[in-house]
Amino acid sequence: MKPHDHIGWVFTGPDGFAALAEPFLAEGAARNERLMYVCADPGADVAARLDDRLGPGVVRVASIAEVYGPSGVVDAAAQHATFATALAQAQADGYSGIRVAADNTPLVADEERLAAWLRWEVVADRFMSEHPVTGLCAFDREQADVDRLRHLATFHPLSSAGSPAPQYRMFAEAGHLRIEGQIDSFAIGQLQLALDVLPPDTGVLIDLATAGFTSRVPQTRLRRLADAGVTVTLRGLPAGPGGLPAAEVPLGEQLLLQRPAPG
User: Fold this and answer.
1) Could you tell me the residue ranges of all domains in the chain?
2) pLDDT tens, position by position, 67-93
3) Known InterPro entries for this protein (predicted)?
4) Other CB atoms closer than 10 Å to residue 98's CB: what's the count?
5) 170-258: in CATH 3.30.300
6) For 85-117, what is each residue's pLDDT tens digit?
7) Could you give the percent of the chain with pLDDT greater than 90?
8) CA distance 149 to 144
9) Which DSSP symbol is given to 196?
10) Fold exhibited by the domain 6-165
11) DSSP E strands: which ranges in the chain?
């Protein structure tokens, strides 16, 4: 993992997160990154174990309540400010960036928390794409059902091998919101929700080498997004039979097609 990487990782059981987080943080220590370990209720043994492995005080150990607030319903704007401040302080102290390992399972425990968390994931991904931040979002499969885990994977550009594979993914990339995989009407609806929490000039990028449309319906909804002022860029040509040809999408001033260069 390197700066700008954002991964969703599914682990199993109470010891699974520690086993995952420790080598992830050790990797960051070698990169001179400020390290954070976040979980619901870290005991003194967690800090002691990390001190033994990485050195006294190298890792900031914090509870979910300390970092994300006591309600468990994350405010995306406030959380952005929290991590922007943490990054600025780390760089002022001579670190190259920050690296955060967090067991976020309690923050997706019900529908209200999940909805708030997904809004934050979109904002967090944009933040990580633009700054030297590396994020590991971990979820316990023993406390979250497979459908919820699959939905969470949608909002991470990277996933662990053991994570449920999502139908599509959405993530920030150079000022765009990129979507890949099999795009249906539900995916376009989620795309609109994501755009609602991002800067107003955020565009949508669809690379047809990694994405396809399940029918003409999502293409029509993309057209509506473009008509509403969102720049939607279709890149390349379909790699196979996974979607409809780009030529069938009505293009316009806000709906663009980038053809691959000859050769």
Assistant:
1) 6-165, 170-258
2) 999 999 999 999 999 999 999 999 999
3) MEDS_domain
4) 25
5) no
6) 999 999 999 999 999 999 999 999 999 999 999
7) 71
8) 7
9) H
10) Rossmann fold (3.40.50)
11) 6-11, 33-39, 59-63, 97-103, 133-140, 158-159, 168-173, 176-183, 203-207, 211-213, 232-235, 255-258
